Structure formats: structure tokens, C-alpha cells
Amino acid sequence: MLKVENITKYYGPLKAVDNLSFTVNEGDIFGLLGVNGAGKTTTFRVIMGLLDDYLGTVTLDGEKIDYSVTDKIGFLTEERSLLTKLTVMEQAEYYGVLKGMTKEAVEKELDKWLKRFEIEEYKYRKIKELSKGNQQKVQFITAIINNPRLLILDEPFTGLDPLNVEMFKGVIKEFEKKGAIIIFSSHRMEHVELFCEKIVVLVEGRSVLEGRIKDIKRNFRKKNIFIKGNVEKEKLKAIEGVLSVVKKSDEYEVKITDEKYLDKVFKYVTKCNEVTKFIVEEPSLNEIFVAKVGEQYGE
């Protein structure tokens, strides 16, 4: 288990992380979300033991994270962190040895992952000669080459086409099944919904939303209604509690401010002709994220 308790981190007068706490169990993928500058990177650095001048505690399986346990951690950064003048083999060896692996073990793991990611021919090519997508594959390989107990993935799908995204997803799911502790960060909420059961959303270092995604969606009062039939857009918009009405192909998407107004919309629709669809859906995680972050900035 990864346990983050009451983390607070200052850079001079700036409070980058403000009393943040969460736990991630083995075999779980946990979403750490926020806009740029929200405190995610600082949180990652604290977790990995790269920063030690902070308040609070971070433990991995009950042990304080320091250089004695960093060999158990893998980190895929949002920014490219590859040494582009090195070959793929040299890059993997550099990171693997830093994680306590022998050169022989590094090469064995590298060969396995190069084959898995279909880039075996690039083993002795310089990083700078690879496409952005293949550089991302190499960066991912260096993050997992030591078979980490704790895997931190910050925007892992950057620069990847849809086929390679699917390839990455498969590997992440394998680590989940093996019992790895995974922290996932992305601005693509559909990816977060796909992987994560629990999340924390940061704004200026503070948690403004946390918990299980299914509970967050259920407790969020705004709902979306999809209606297909002979209804009038202006009459829908005039109903109390209706935020917006948008025509999409042959149906209408109606957003309401609170589920208590659902009956009012339904009452109107029952008076209309040829209604073949009336479906109420929870809002997407992206809608909730925008709403909660916007609240913090007074939008």
C-alpha cells in the first residue's frame, strides 16, 4: 500500500501542496488530476523521495520512501527525459543499473519489451533518430524495466496514435493484475475513467474532489437527459432547472442543474408525440472536473 498523509510542501512563500492525503492499494490504479500548476508534479516528487523538505509522511508498504526503496519505483514523466545521444540499449542500461539491475538483466528485459512494442530493430539506434511515438515507447520501457512495485504514469499516452495507445493500455492492465500500485495522471478524462476507480482532483495544491468515480458521479447533482421524439427545443429550454438543450443528430441532449428537475422535463415529454427515447445519464468525469475546478476559480 502507498500511503500519503497530510503532505504540505512550500517553495518559499508558495504552498505547492496543501495537506494532501490519500492511499492506493496494491492492484489499484489511482487518478491524481488537476490543471497545470495544480501540484501534481510536486506530489510525484515527494512520493518518489526526490524532495524531503515537506510536512507529512509517505510510506510504501509501511516503509518511508527513501533511497533504500526507490528501486521499487517506476516513473514515466510527462516531459521527455531521455538522453537523445544514447542508443536505446544504452538508455535502458543507464536507468536499469540505477535501479539496481545487472546489465544482463537489463538487456533481457529490454529485449522482451522491445519485442512487445514492435521496435526490436531500434535497440542500437540513437534516441534522437526515433519518432516521438517510439521515443515514448522507450521512455515507458525505462519506467517499467525494473518491474516496479509502485508505477507513476504522468500523461503516458503523449505522442501515441490510437493503436499504440491500446498497446500501452494492455501493459498497464497487466501491471494492475500483477498487483502493482499505480498512480495515473492525464488531462484526458476518458482515459482516467477507463483506468481509475478512485481519484483526487487538485487545485492550487488542495484536494477539491476525491473518492470513487462512481460515487462522485452519483452525488453530482447535474444530470444529462437524451430525448428522441417530436419535442420543441424552446419549450425544453423554458423548463425550470434546464441548463442547456443541444440538438445532436436526431436527438436532443438536455442538461439539468439538479436531478430534482427531472420530473418537470419528463412531464413535458409525456405530452409530446412519437417519443422513442428518454434516457438519463450521469455526467462525464470531464464535465464534473470542469465544474469543480471552475468553482474554485469563481467561474
What's the short version?
The protein has about 300 residues and is an alpha/beta fold. Helix content is about 35%, strand content about 30%.
How many whole angstroms does the radius of gyration measure?
23 Å
Query: Level of helix content?
Result: 25-40%
User: In sequence order, what are the helices and strands, one letter per element?
Assistant: EEEHEEEHHHEHEHEEHEHEEHEH
Tally the structural domains: 2
Mean pLDDT: 93
N-to-C span: 37 Å
The appropriate CATH architecture of the largest domain is 3-Layer(aba) Sandwich
CATH superfamily of the largest domain: P-loop containing nucleotide triphosphate hydrolases
Describe the SSE topology.
Elements: E1 2-11, E2 14-24, E3 29-34, H1 40-47, E4 55-60, E5 63-64, E6 73-76, H2 88-98, H3 103-116, H4 132-144, E7 150-154, H5 162-177, E8 181-185, H6 189-195, E9 198-203, E10 206-212, H7 213-219, E11 223-230, H8 233-237, E12 242-248, E13 251-256, H9 262-269, E14 273-281, H10 285-296
Parallel strand pairs: 3-8, 3-9, 6-7, 7-8
Antiparallel strand pairs: 1-2, 1-4, 4-5, 9-10, 11-13, 11-14, 12-13
Helix pairs in contact: 2-3, 2-4
